[in-house]
User: What shape does this take?
Amino acid sequence: MHVPFCRRKCGYCAFYSLPGAAPAQMRAWRERLRREFAEFAAASAPLHSVFLGGGTPTLLPPSELAGLLTDIRAAFTVAAGAEISSEANPETVTPEVADTLAAGGVNRVSLGVQSFQPALRRVLDRAGDPAAAETAVPRLRQAGIHNLGADLINAIPGQTPPLWRDDLRRALGLGIAHLSTYALTREEGARLADSFPPANPELEADLWEIADTETARHGLHRYEVSNFARPGAACRHNQDVWLGAAYLGCGPAACSFDGALRWSNPADLNAWLRDPVPRETDPLPADRRAAEILVFGLRTTAGWTRDLFQERTGFDYLELRGRELHRLQDQGVLAGLPDRVYPTPRGLLLHDHLAIELL
Ligand code: SF4
Assistant: This one.
């Protein structure tokens, strides 16, 4: 569920979100969301994962947040043991918000920290108190939510290896079970994109190595190009997306995949409020779609078994891209063929290269 509201627009951010939305806009969004749920609910399998992302889901007033969580359960069957995740801006996690999330069944929260360093936050134009995460974590635990994660950004201009190590240690010191960390990129549409210097691959490789070492010291391991988790704490929603499972995205700018067809909602609240929603479909031929899913799954350290890939796509990966896969294995980027295929540590660093070769 895409919650497209933020307190203000961060300078590095190119996601669709509306800063300073009025309560009436939030009410209209929720009303439209209920109709979008109704459109898909009858055909939906029981949900084993629900993900509230944004935007800033925790910016919703507690009554709207509680109402949203009730609407989801009223429209869909949520499977027993489902993972119900919410992204959260640490500063918005008041005791009331933490209790509302827990009462609504949310059992996993990912905190958007980005950096604890005031100077680096200024570079990102990320407002807020860097220490807010240290208040939010015990609040969420007190409310009963123990599966907690944090997002950090690396390769920020001015971020030295010691500063990066310090960010990692402060985040991991909170006892989190999951860490997502993305290298800062010049995203088209982000206000500050042009002011960021080009990527420095050597420095980035060093920063990834530091992340591997620091997370391992806290019992987390890398399970995807940009994600680390304790055993059993990998994000179910993201794994489904990477490994070609069907998912339904609701809200403006949300994307969906039913196992064959991918479609996206308009990245514009007013356009999405219309009936019917003017959606864009992405009509790839089945073999191209399967190649895309192959590449996505190779973001994960476990990669694919031949059987799982066949089950999800209907294709055998060796018939689909055997020559390319073997070449990448010879280059030391992939391993495990023929019954499995997964990226080596070098393959994780060179995922873009791998994608170009396979698509
Ligand atoms: S980075 Fe997150 S909080 Fe900042 S504008 Fe983007 S979606 Fe909103």
Summary: The CA atoms of residues 243 and 297 lie 5 Å apart.
